[in-house]
Amino acid sequence: MSTISTNSFLFCLMIAFALQLQFQFPPAAAASLNKSQSRGGGGKTLSFTFYQHETINKTGYIVVDGVAGAGVSQTTTPFGTIYVFRDELTVHADRASRVAGVAEGTSITTSLDGLQSLSLAKITISHRGHRGSVSVLGGTYNTKPSDYPVVGGTGDFAYALGFVRSSPVDLSGRTVTYKMELHLYWPPYAHYAPVP
User: β-pairing, 130-141 with 116-127?
Assistant: First the structure.
């Protein structure tokens, strides 16, 4: 009986020793640490500022007319309106400045005054050596700054978290301009995640 308990005790010690060794060495996924750090992995942060230029019936279209409330203007659409867009993102507020990406998505007007909507967008970026996209989903207030949580990313922005703030810059004329600030963060576990 004592031989069985001695063998069990030794077996438990060997398991404990093996587990302790496992945590003294980084996991195999950490071998790609240099690759993932180039995309900002491991608790890193990254911020960009772009300018979104939207022109009704050129880069943005109403695909479903709303049913009530405000009329169509540069800042309002009737309740229930579904609007789709594909707008260039530039590095400065001037439309002629260098294009660094594109914002494409849709908005659904959710208020009777026509100023608020639920928006989702994919923001594709090719800027300062970074390439990829972030996806956002949240509420928009057309004439005030709006914050959107980042719900996903691809390329250099895979596993990124954070938020995007969109603020009106120029709401007059045929083309409206919004300042788009991306504030991204990669949690410490991101460098262990698989790289597509």
Answer: antiparallel
